[in-house]
Amino acid sequence: MINWIPLNSVEQVHKLADLSAKTPCVIFKHSSRCDLSEMSRLTLEKDWDIPEKEIYLYFLDVIQYPKISKEVSDHFMEHHETPQLLHIKDGFCTYIADHQEISFQDFKDFLINER
């Protein structure tokens, strides 16, 4: 089970960018109106095995917080999609997967290759 950190303020976006200099962060952009988004979230939660102290996990409900979603897109210079998984390290988005491309194993492989 993932203990998501709700992403619900612009200030958090900037703080997590700063935080990512020490501990990488993940943002999962979720739409409650999208079945694929829900399936992606459930699959991530089922497969996730990275300890919480190694990576901060943020959950962004794009329906409830559209301004925050836009801030994430603008700040990290990525194209908005949902569902979407973003890896933030040293203040930059270093990994993006969206829709059917979201796979915990692919993300884990990325982390292994990044080190």
3D architecture notes:
The structure is a single chain. The chain is of the alpha/beta class and 115 residues long. The chain has one domain (5-114): Glutaredoxin (3-Layer(aba) Sandwich). It has 4 helices and 5 strands, in the order βαβαβαββα. The model has no long low-confidence stretch (mean pLDDT 93).
Brief overview, please?
The protein is α/β, with parallel strands linked by helices and about 120 residues long.
Counting structural domains, the number is 1
Find the count of extended strands (DSSP E, 2+ residues): 5
Structural class: alpha/beta
Spatial order of strands in the largest sheet: 1-3-2-4-5
State the low-pLDDT regions, or none: none
The gross shape turns out to be globular
What do the pLDDT scores average to?
93
Known CATH architecture: 3-Layer(aba) Sandwich
CATH class: Alpha Beta
What percentage of amino acids are in beta strands? Answer: 15-25%
Distance between the termini: 25 Å
Order of helices and strands: EHEHEHEEH
Considering the protein shown, what is the CATH homologous superfamily? Glutaredoxin
Fraction in helix: 25-40%
The total count of helices amounts to 4
Rg, rounded, reads 13 Å
Instruction: Tell me the major beta sheet.
Output: 5 strands, mixed
| CATH topology category name | Glutaredoxin
